[in-house]
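Tokens for chain A. Residues wanted.
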């Protein structure tokens, strides 16, 4: 990693079942932690009230809802986030350019601080999985095509796996936000993640943000786990 590498920030994946668990781990992590990812598990249960509560506790919220529907429905859902303090939202690039463009327009109109990020090919899908749904393309090529479409359609960035990260960064240049999960500090359990990078490795390969869940959530001292990752990133 060189001194000129752009900054890379930590996002905690708040993959816990209840509001109490969520607020308790955030309290332990303290203000050193800026970004928090809220996924469907918590959002389905608590909705935007929890997003507000997390923002009131001083954190920035990345809403990982992976929206995918017809353009009008996704744009309307994005408009429904008016006034909700979320800084990032995921949508599926497989919804196509019109869906992405309409979503980006809706965000610009109603929530100008909200960045839309594209999800390309889910890492649970391999070449054989894509073939079963009639897609006969190499997953890596499909990821790059969808990533290009996403930025051309007005999205601010992409979520991509450690494997895809260098290619997507090379393809899209430096101005796009790239969010990378599958990150594990040296010595941490990989859990069920198959391809991992260390925080420093992800930064060196071009990640703008790294998403880390269990190494922090399951740590005896979550604040220390966050501190170590931040130290490595800086
Ligand atoms: O606990 P862990 O650090 O593995 O959590 C990673 C987070 O990133 C989870 O919320 C997971 O759903 C998400 N994610 C991922 N791989 C992807 C996309 C999202 O691990 N390809």
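Reply:
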């Amino acid at each position: 990693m060189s001194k000129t590498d752009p900054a890379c920030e930590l996002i905690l994946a708040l993959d816990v079942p209840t509001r109490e668990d969520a607020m308790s781990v955030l309290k332990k992590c303290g203000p050193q932690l800026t970004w928090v990812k809220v996924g469907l598990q918590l959002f389905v249960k608590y909705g935007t009230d929890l997003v507000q509560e997390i923002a009131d506790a001083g954190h920035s919220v990345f809403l990982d809802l992976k929206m995918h529907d017809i353009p009008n429905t996704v744009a309307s859902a994005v408009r429904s986030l008016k006034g909700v303090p979320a800084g990032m939202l995921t949508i599926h690039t497989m919804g196509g350019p019109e869906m992405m463009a309409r979503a980006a327009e809706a965000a610009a109109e109603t929530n100008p601080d909200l960045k839309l990020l594209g999800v390309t090919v889910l890492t649970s899908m391999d070449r054989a999985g894509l073939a079963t749904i009639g897609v006969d393309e190499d997953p890596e090529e499909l990821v790059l095509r969808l990533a290009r479409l996403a930025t051309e359609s007005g999205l601010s960035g992409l979520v991509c796996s450690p494997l895809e990260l260098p290619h997507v960064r090379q393809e899209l240049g430096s101005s796009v936000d790239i969010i990378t999960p599958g990150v594990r500090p040296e010595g941490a359990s990989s859990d069920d993640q198959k391809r991992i990078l260390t925080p420093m490795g992800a930064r060196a390969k071009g990640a703008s943000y790294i998403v880390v869940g269990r190494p922090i959530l399951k740590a005896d001292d979550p604040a220390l786990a966050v501190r170590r990752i931040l130290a490595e990133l800086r």
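The mean pLDDT is 95. The chain has one domain: 9-233.
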